Amino acid sequence: MAQEPSAPPWWRRAIRVGLLSFVLAAVVNYLGQEALESVPALISMLIILMLITIGISFDILGTSVTAAEVTPLNAMAAKRISGARQAIFLVRNADRVANFANDVVGDVTGAVTGAAGSTVAMQLSVGRDFTDTLISLAIIGLVAGLTVGGKAAGKTFAIEHATDVLVLVGRAIHAIERMIGRSLTGGRGPNSSRRRTT
User: Fold this and answer.
1) Residues of the domain holding 80
2) Residue 197 falls within a domain, yes or no?
3) CA-CA distances (angstroms) from residue 90 to 76, 83, 108, 166, 169?
4) Helix axis angle, 130-160 relative to 162-180, nearest 10°?
């Protein structure tokens, strides 16, 4: 029986993830700042809310893959429920999925929304009086509160509904696989009838 390839050393993986996070944060932050400076403050806030939502959504995914049990997903896959096979793939690669979802996407969106909140605060603060200071603090505090509070609520939801979350994500991946005509989660393809052994 052939042995599975060993995982790369922890330090190599840490460097790779760190570099990916650096590049994503730099690129997204630069593009975000350029966009936010050219649109009204209301549109900027909508963009920030969208980024916060993305961060919370990926945080829910990262928590779900570590909390989910593979047994109910195997039962769904045996019944050929759409997205179950992809959900099993996510659970079997929980460490990598959680690392990408929580650490890469989650931390990058958190850093970008913080910087974007400061940009909006400066847009609305035309002077240096007490009112402008309060506006700046309120916006920055709102962004931080929505991010931290949303992730806290998302973690509770993910733990209680881990299987449902993964099946939903699995169905989205399955739809993408059918669209592009190839499997992203292993196997012979999105239309393969082969069942994975557990």
Assistant:
1) 11-180
2) no
3) 14, 11, 21, 8, 9
4) 90
Does residue 188 sit within a domain? no
Cα–Cα distance, 58 to 80 (Å, whole number): 26
Is 109 within the bounds of a domain? yes
Query: CA–CA separation, 153 vs 155, rounded Å?
Result: 5
Is 167 inside a domain boundary?
Answer: yes
Q: Give every CB contact of residue 71 below 8 A, 6+ residues apart in sequence.
A: none
Distance CA 179, CA 138 (A): 44
Q: What is the pLDDT of residues 120-175, one digit of tens each?
A: 777 776 656 667 678 778 888 888 899 889 999 999 999 999 999 999 999 999 99
Q: What is the pTM of this model?
A: 0.77
Q: For the chain, what is the domain count?
A: 1
SS (H, E, C) the chain: CCCCCCCCCHHHHHHHHHHHHHHHHHHHHHHHHHHHCCCCHHHHHHHHHHHHHHHHHHHHHHHHHHHCCHHHHHHHHHCCCCCHHHHHHHHHCHHHHHHHHHHHHHHHHHHHHHHHHHHHHHHHCCCCCHHHHHHHHHHHHHHHHHHHHHHHHHHHHHHHCHHHHHHHHHHHHHHHHHHHCCCCCCCCCCCCCCCCCC
